[in-house]
């Protein structure tokens, strides 16, 4: 069943990583998991931008036009999926350095399950207060990093000491990917493709 590990990763993460390791899913399964979970932030962001309005602390709420919000939501969806696949590719590329021999499907599993808490943060957009979304986002990021540190030694079958360094390298790559996406967004917006606001 799709998303069948979701509850376990929150309730008992270490045991759930062992369960994931015991029966690795197919590439298709991991891909469907990513495609479904990435819908959460995209749909919630669209709804809040068009119908609820964003509050940044001062002034009136900010709304986007439906077309502009749709364009941004689709771009966000594509960027999230591409980011997970790129992180899986980087984790696979680095694995040999740390004495692991995973398949790309295994590293994609690692990337998809550790990114899930970050994607679930998308529900916070249904209460579009900037301070609230930032707090929930930090909590989601912290839990994603925790899942990564717990899951790497189990999925990669390497000692915890080496797993810690490997996980730290994956976190660094994830941060680089994030900065790349943010920089690309800034360039895109400055080229005349920024959001259109309603008044």
Describe the structure.
The protein is mainly α and about 200 residues long. The protein is about 75% helix and about 0% strand. The chain is built from 8 helices and 2 strands. It has helices spanning about 5-10, 15-20, 25-35, 40-50, 65-95, 105-120, 130-155, 160-195; strands at about 65, 195-199. The chain has a two-stranded antiparallel ribbon with strand order 1-2. Helix 7 packs across helix 8 (about 160-195). The mean pLDDT is about 85. This is YIP1 family protein. Its main location: membrane. It is a multi-pass membrane protein. It comes from Alishewanella longhuensis. It holds the Pfam family Yip1.
What does the secondary structure layout of this molecule look like, with pairings?
Elements: H1 6-11, H2 13-22, H3 27-37, H4 39-52, E1 63-64, H5 66-95, H6 104-120, H7 130-156, H8 160-193, E2 197-198
Antiparallel strand pairs: 1-2
Helix pairs in contact: 2-7, 3-6, 4-5, 5-6, 5-8, 6-7, 7-8
Structural class: mainly alpha
Q: Cα-atom Rg, whole angstroms? A: 18 Å
- For the residues shown, what is the average pLDDT? 86
Euclidean distance between termini CA atoms: 45 Å
Strand content: under 5%
What kind of sheet is the major sheet?
2 strands, antiparallel
Strand count? 2
Q: Helix content range of the residues, please? A: over 70%
Number of helical stretches of at least 4 residues:
8
Indicate the low-confidence ranges by residue numbers.
none
Please write the string of helix (H) and strand (E) elements: HHHHEHHHHE
In spatial order, strands of the major sheet run: 1-2
Shape from CA axes? elongated
Pfam family, one: Yip1
Domain Yip1: 7-180
Membrane topology: Multi-pass membrane protein
InterPro entries: Yip1_dom (IPR006977)
């Amino acid at each position: 069943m799709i998303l069948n590990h979701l509850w376990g990763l929150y309730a008992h993460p270490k045991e759930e990583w062992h369960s994931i390791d015991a029966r690795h899913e197919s590439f298709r399964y991991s891909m469907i998991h990513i495609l479904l979970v990435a819908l959460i932030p995209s749909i919630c962001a669209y709804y809040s931008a068009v119908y609820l309005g964003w509050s940044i602390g001062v002034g009136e709420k900010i709304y986007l036009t439906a077309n502009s919000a749709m364009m941004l939501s689709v771009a966000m969806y594509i960027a999230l999926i591409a980011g997970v696949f790129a992180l899986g590719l980087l984790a696979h590329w680095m694995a040999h350095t740390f004495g692991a021999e995973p398949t790309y499907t295994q590293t994609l599993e690692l990337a998809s399950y550790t990114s899930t808490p970050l994607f679930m943060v998308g529900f916070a957009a249904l209460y579009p207060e900037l301070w609230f979304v930032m707090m929930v986002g930090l909590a989601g990021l912290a839990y994603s990093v925790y899942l990564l540190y717990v899951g790497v030694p189990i999925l990669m079958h390497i000692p915890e000491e080496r797993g810690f360094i490997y996980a730290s390298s994956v976190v660094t790559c994830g941060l680089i990917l994030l900065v790349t996406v943010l920089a690309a967004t800034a360039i895109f917006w400055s080229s005349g493709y920024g959001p259109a606001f309603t008044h």
